Every structure is written in C-alpha cells, then in structure tokens.
Amino acid sequence: MQSLPIQNSGFFDIARESSDISFEEFSEKYLTPEIPVIIEGVGNDWPARERWSEEYLLKQLAQAPTVSTASLWYWGERDVLPEDFTTPDFVNQCLDSPAMFPRKLHTRIWIHKMYNVSSWHYDANFTNVFNVQVKGKKEWFLISPDTPLDCYPYTTFAIMDGKKEDVLEGKRHTQFFLNEGDMVYIPPVWFHKVIACDKENININWLFTKRKTTVSSVELKRDLERYVLHNYLSNHRFKFVRGIVALFNRYTPVFIQIKWNDEEMTKTPYTVSGLDMFMRVLKENFMLLKTLMHVNKIKPYMKSISRPKKLDKIKL
To answer: pLDDT tens digits for 86-121?
Structure first.
C-alpha cells in the first residue's frame, strides 16, 4: 500500500509495495513522479539468499567474462549469475523500455562489512536505481532533491559538515531498514546515506536513465547545469581546456567525475541560460569555502570505505 503523499519538508514514511506489483502500477505511482518505494519480498526465493558470500562471489564473478571491478562495486550484465537470482519482470520492462537510454551494463554488486558507511550523495547521470538487499541488513536515509544538501563543488557528494540530526533538519526525508529480500527504488538525484548493519552485507542493483523527465527539483536543475558546463568545457575551442577536463575525468574516482554516459542529455523541464551557468559557477566556487572548513573529514572517510577485491588476482 502506498503511503500518504510526501509533504514539502520533514519526515515521511516511505511507500511499500508487494513483489507482484505490475510495471504499469509501478510506473504510474513511482517511476513517472520519481517517488522512492520499498518493494517487499522481491528476492525472498532467490538461491542467492543462501549461496552468496564474499568468497562465493569472488569465485563466480572471476569466471564471468563480462564482469569487471570498479572503484566501489562489481560491474556485470543484467543476469550475471542467472542460477542465483531472477530479475523481476517490472525491472526488465524498465530496463528494456524505449523511454530509457540503452546501456551494456545494468548491474552492480556490492559487498560491505558491518558499519560500512556510504556517506550522503546522489548518483550521477540522472540514474534510477533498483537495489535489492541479498544478505544482511542496511539502514537507509533519503533526502528529497527539493530540499538538497550542499555538495562539494561540481560533485554529487554532500559536504560532511554535521551530525545526522543537523543534516536532516528542515529536509524532506525518510529513514528505514532494508531487510533481506527487499528492494528499494531510488529516483534520480535523491540524496542517500547507507549504513551496513550486519557482519556481511551484499546488495545487487540495476541502473537506468530516462530519456525524458517531467519532474522538477532544485537538485535536478543543479545537476543539469553541471553537465551543460562539462559539455561546454569538454568541447571548448581551446585544446588545453579540453585536455584539463579529460585529465580530471581520467584520474579522479568515478564517483567524482562529471561525465554524461549516454548519447544525449535527458530532456528536462529546464532550459539553461548563460546567466544560469554564470550563477552556477559562482555558487559552486562559493562552496569551496565550506569545503575548506570540513576538508579534514574527507581523508578519514575515504580510508573507511570498503573497496572490492580485484577479480584478476584470482582468475586462473
């Protein structure tokens, strides 16, 4: 059953649905208006619930030719381990819809130890995410893009400048535990923070990006302006400017890069003007001052992140 409509600020109870939800119902209630929802019991019958461990996955993924190791997760095709799980029908219909950009790799697998924290951020490239908790339990916090957090300049990561209670004050937010077998849908540019609660925590998620969105928000506009700025600089008439952009994206972690991954930009309700871009540069550069005040928190956090083991070390 869907929860009450989400108010403009303060806490809201996230909507919950059963795993037999149809694509049409999911699309009408959540996909089109871009509202988060928990879909319960999606993976209850998956063999992965019993089979998956870090040791098992490393062996299996090392033998899959299309799987690769990213900075924080493992990339794979949609049904990378078909004997272990089944992609839900409504997920397949989302991924295959002509309203979405095509992509080769839809799937990410995450392995986390207890107390691993994914700090406040939103996923780049207007990404929609289906995330299933296969093993363990995680605590989730979501903040609406209508009441966004301050981010490090030009990134999708929020500045670490306060305690949980301070961050949530005045924000449109929710908090919940995602249990084994359950799925959460995270719409584009929704901020989220995730804490691993059990000894072993394994998640699988599927990604997709809409060709068009009718939803407006403060953070959507900011992110669109980020990409317009990057597109301008990466196609600049001066070669050294293009080179600086290329070097930045080559040597920075993927979660910091500004790089649109599809053949064209998602169509949004916004038209970005030259004045918008001028103001965006001023606003992002102003965030440098706030960044300097909290820069000492970045290095300890980066050291605490659980990173995936390289699969090529165990390939035969």
So the answer is: 999 999 999 999 999 998 889 999 999 999 999 999
Structure tokens at 103: 């992509």
79-85 long-range contacts (CB < 8 A, ≥24 apart) are 80/107, 80/109, 81/48, 83/47, 84/46, 84/47, 84/48, 84/51, 84/52, 84/60, 85/43, 85/46, 85/47, 85/48, 85/132, 85/134, 85/204
Q: Whole-angstrom Cα distance, residue 194 to residue 203?
A: 12
Mean pLDDT over the full length of the chain: 91
- The C-alpha atoms of residue 186 and residue 184 are separated, in whole angstroms, by 6
Q: Output the CA–CA distances (angstroms, integers) from residue 149 to 54, 55, 106, 266, in the order listed.
A: 34, 37, 27, 23
Residue entry with tokens 């064209």: 264
The ranges assigned to domains in the chain are 1-316
Q: List the structure tokens of 161.
A: 């400048």
Give pLDDT, residue 313.
45
Domain 1-316: which topology?
A: Jelly Rolls (2.60.120)
CA-to-CA distance for 293 and 160, rounded, in angstroms?
Answer: 10
Report whether 144 contacts 190 (CB < 8 A): yes
Q: Are 183 and 42 in contact (CB under 8 A)?
A: yes
> What does pTM read for this prediction?
0.92
Distance CA 69, CA 307 (A): 10
